[in-house]
């Protein structure tokens, strides 16, 4: 324990310690002198630009990107303008702010992504200073120009520039300034001589920090905390004022005895901090000042850079990297000399147990007597999370494991989760990975963001192992990593398409949540079309294959895939695309090679594009369908000449198709139309529209062979209704209308018109082909029993009973049934009898009984 506390430094009631994170892997010849350095928080990458304002075209500065451990990631000569500031976004993208107001954005590997400008007026006035900050809206950029005006962009991903009001009396750049984010508003706090101003969107307001000594002098340096809640001001007299960033409350004021302006000033504050402090750095000195009057001083040998973190400050030099932080209270309780905290006693008990000493039992008894064994285990587990040294972690976790063996109702969840999290943290802290995260940073960042950062840095095997170890669901873990890996794999130019496709298939397989179409789209964006097609072969969903194939101009392959899918909507989508992209001849030839697509397109044309349908049939020499098309088109024509012309075309096509029956039926239709026209001219009968009307009722009649009987019947009915019997007779003879059909039509027409004499004459004209029961039934439908009885005697014996029953003649029906000795007919008559028909019932019953004896 004495060794662990050897590097602890007291500050008020708290202790501060420096923990070495890395011996830097880089080899910087001149250290960090004359360099612009930016490091991302949460153990992020480091960007370094030597002599950023060098303007000589023959000797360009070099922009270098390293991991937090100093492992080189990217390096390239800076060919653009002089750089004022570097910074990192929350997604580890590098921002390079130039003198002319241009902001260039690069990814972690030095690839240029995009750029934007901080305003046209900045080109003339130049940027004097710039800062990159983080707000609730995202990553922002603030600049001050040669005209002493501030311009803000609170979110570079949704760029909206805001030019702040002028500051009274400001000439050039201010002595110092910071960006504050309060209540979702972004403001600038600046110092101009002895005055402090807060500038927002609409106003510039002079402010005075509460409790600042009158002899403090002018503010020459200021710093805002990691959370933007606290503010530190350093004056030219060496006074350090700390308070809330809204300037409503003072925390402390310390005289540092240093009148020179520090090179950097950063807050060092962790969550639940006992002693928040500010770290100030001069060329050869690092000073930690808290809310008390005490300070901690560390000598510096090389130039350093301070990076504020959630729970401390990273100190980066040319040789190593350290973490300065307040020692967590639980670690103080366990490791302080002569500590009697439960965690300290449990740790000592475990050490004695490993020595096989009976003192272990004494320490355990002391903890149990205080009923603090559960608390002791929790303290050891919590302290292990705050320790960076793996040996210290193991000692604490073994002590916790030893203590929980004596507890019966202790939940192991915290112990298990801390073990897992420490294993993950230790793996990413390795120098080869270079993510020096503390446990507090890890909890704030979340596992998902850590996986994203590993994937972004292309540590795919480690990311997959962590996902599996933490049992993250595939679609959030392994599958997401594999998808990103595959997207990078397709960009490797030194491998063949076949090799990459095979590697992706073997690695990705059927992993849930991974879309081969997304990977193929990435390959296509990289100009590897053939690789994209090979990858699409592994995609199980045709709906994902087809859009990309169309985008790649592989329309015929897209059509084949759509047909194979069996999805008609998808086929229609491809066909519609092909129709717009190809000339008509090529389009039709493509469809001929895909019968399913051709059939679907024909169905579409029947409803939407009739003329295209005609062209299709002509292209295929499909005379039968072309004839059907002409027939259907004829139904839509109102002029007789046009209809006859189309029907004649149909006859010609039917003859070519050797369909004699359809050709004959179509010719009959043409004769019928001419017959109707003739009668219209002579009698004004209005028959010509009947063919069209009846065909419209039968919208599925695509051939005249189905519509013709309806046309004859409608015309015949119209002639009979108009009393044009001679013309109806002529139609009957000329068109060889079947006798039964003609007799039925005339029978119903005469009965409906109540021309009973004509009906009787008609019945006697010759033997009825439809029998005479029909006459009886039609007369009864017209409510004329008298006329109906005239035809009962003419009915055949088999239909006599029905005829008598139709006219309600029960006695006649009974006589006919008894005469025929038909059991079923006698039963039918009985069913129609009522109680008043006793004589008929008796006769029928006797007849049935007699028939039964025989």
From TrEMBL:
Coiled coil ranges: 346-373
GO BP, sorted A to Z: endosomal transport; intracellular protein transport; vacuole fusion, non-autophagic
This protein's UniProt keywords: Coiled coil, Endosome, Lysosome, Membrane, Protein transport, Transport
GO CC aspect terms: CORVET complex; HOPS complex; late endosome membrane; lysosomal membrane
Gene3D superfamilies: Vps16, C-terminal region
Residues annotated as domain Vps16 N-terminal: 5-416
Gene Ontology MF term list: actin binding
Domain Vps16 C-terminal span(s) in chain numbering: 514-695, 714-838
Annotated protein name in UniProt: Vacuolar protein sorting-associated protein 16 homolog
Organism for this UniProt entry: Amphiprion ocellaris
Protein encoded by which gene: VPS16
